[in-house]
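Appendix B, Record 12. Input sequence as logged:
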Amino acid sequence: MSASAADHVYAIIPAGGVGSRLWPLSRAKEPKFLLDLTGSGHSLLRSTWDRIVPLIGSDHIMVVTGAAHRASVVSQLPDLDGDNLVLESEPRDSTAAICLAAALIARRDPDAIVASFPADHFIGDERAFREVVTEAAQVAATGRLVTIGITPTSPSTGFGYIRTDGTLDPDGSQGLPKSARAVTSFVEKPKASVAREYVASGEYLWNAGMFVARAVNLMGWLRESEPELAAGIDRIADAWGTPAVYEVKAKTWPKLKKIAIDYAIAEPVAAAGQVAVIPGDFDWDDVGDFSAVARQVRKRNPGNLAILGEASVLSESSTGVLVSETDRLIAIIGVQDLVVVDTEDVLMITTSDHAQRVKEMVNMVRQTGNENLL
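Logged structural output:
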C-alpha cells in the first residue's frame, strides 16, 4: 500500500463480548480478548494490534470497548491514542460499535476507508493478512463493502459462510485485484452435511467478520437499513469532542438497537450486489471454544494434552486440553478428549465434543444466582 493510500486507511477494533464458551477462563471482568489463549505470551487484543500497526500505524487504529475494560485495554495497548479509544457504557452489539467509530473517523477524514477486525481472533501469517487487507482497501475505494473470507480447510459447522460468484473484475478493466470475488449472500452456520457441500463446491468461504469500506458508505448503508440506529450514532458523533457529548451519549447509547453488522449492513448490501470478498489463505481461528484453544496451543507445543497456563500436570494415556490458573498438581489418567479448566473459584470439566455447550452451563450458573462467577 502506498504511503498516500495508507494515509486514508483506518482500523477499528471492536473489543467486546464475554466469550461464554470459554468460561470460566473468560469472564465479564476479564473477557476473552484480554487473555492469552494461544500460548503466545500476548493477549488476543494485543496480537490484533501488533499485526495491524505495521500496515497503517498506531495513530490510525481506533478501539471500541466497554468502560469497565478501559484500564486493561490502556495497559495492554500503551501506544493507543486516547482520542482513539471509544468506551461503551453497555454493549449494543457490533453495528453500534463499528459504525460509531466509522462516524467519528469520517468526521476527521471524509475520504477514510475503515477496516474492522475482531479483537479476539488468531491469524497465523501476518504478512499474508496485511496483503489481503491492502487488496480489500483497494476494492473498498470503489464504493463496495468488502469482507475478508477465509479459505475453508474443513467443512466446519462452527463458522458462518460467504457464498461467492466468480471473479469481480475478470478482464482487469476495473483495475481491481485478481483475487476479488463478488458476494451473493452470507450464510449462517450450517449442518455438517451442508458444510461438506459448501466446501466441495469451492464457492464458499468462512465468514471471519472482517469488513472494509469507505466510512461514509458504511454510514450511508446504515441509514438505509436502520435509520433510527444511524440517527442515534450521528447524534453521538456530532457531539463528540464537546461538553455535550456525555449527556447525549448517556441518553442515546442505551437506546440504540442491538444488532450485528452482518444483519444490519452486510446482508442487505449483499442482496443489492454491492459486496466483494478477498479470500484469505492464511491460518485463521476465532478461538471460540476450548477445542480451538487446544488447536492453537498444540501448534506451539505439540502433544496429546494441550496445556495452557503454569499448572503442574501428570498425564498418562490421556488427550485433550487443560487450562489452569492454580498451582495445584493435576493428574489425568486414561481419559480421551477431556477439557479441564481449573481456576481459583471454578473447576469446569467437559469433553471436546461438548465444548460448544459451555455457554449452556453459563446460563445455568446465572440461573442459580451465582453472577459473581461470571
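The domain at 3-285 is CATH 3.90.550.10 (Spore Coat Polysaccharide Biosynthesis Protein SpsA; Chain A).
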